[in-house]
Amino acid sequence: MPSPNVRPARKAVIPVAGMGTRFLPATKSVPKELLPVVDRPALQYIVEEAARAGLPEVLMVTGRNKAAIEDYFDRHPELESALEKKGDADRLASVHASTDVAQVHFVRQGEARGLGHAVLQAAAFVGDEPFAVLLGDDLIDARDHLLEHMLAVQAEHGGSVIALLDVGLENIDKYGAVAIEPGTQTAMDGDEVVRITGLVEKPPIDEAPSSLAIIGRYVLAPEVFEVLRETAPGRGGEIQLTDALATLVARGEPLHGVVFSGRRYDTGDRLDYLKAVVRLASERDDLGPPFTAFLREFVTELPAEGASPS
Fold first, then answer.
1. Which of the following CATH numbers is that of domain 11-268: 3.40.30.10, 3.90.550.10, 3.40.309.10, 3.10.450.50?
2. CA neighbours within 13 Å on the CB side: how many for 168?
3. pTM score, two decimals?
4. Which of 4, 90, 208, 236 sits CB 3.0–4.6 Å from 172 for a disulfide?
């Protein structure tokens, strides 16, 4: 069995080249990753998560019409100077937070050929070290340390580690699904750790190996790049990261999954995006009390289910 990689992961990769068609027309001019979740873009939450987990270098894999993302993580001297002159220390601190949270780099994907192809663009940045991949549609609550757990599992076992969520068999055809080795479960702060024996992208419900779905956090061994270079387009005509991981498993490389039991917010779906904004806003110290008071009043004014609004 391959020995664990003694070098810890230090870098994170965030693919941000998607077109965001589910949020049109807003995303005609604003990248979906910059849509605000309360008062910060979803993407800033992701970068903060990587930095909190000890990954100070972040590569964003961008595409056309994503220049606003580079601008967002760049310094804005004129704005900073104006806020400083006004003595607006709170807003100045929030502006600094978006640029100081991590060292952010950018590379263009060029052609959208799937998640696996996007990850492959990070090969030169990563080198021969393990690294994390964070997808921008999944927000993990800052109180839940999923990525930290995954990094610890990779440091112990080597190979690669993916985040899993039990979505029920009725929903598994929307996700990549995994087969697991019986009796391999261990626990880490409430999250189970399992050994993965197979993966399939969006299987029919009656062919799914389990109800455990792959969600948007990965800690990958650098060997994945070699496999991705040889991976043919799969489902949807795209180079699937799931297919590359399945190849690594077939070669005997260790692949573990952390079954997440905490709070996850899906910002890639319009309804779930609204739910995320409500949940996060209601828990804020500054906005929570008046916002939850409004929600309670608003709910009492809603028409009964099935009734027409007045």
1. 3.90.550.10
2. 2
3. 0.87
4. 208
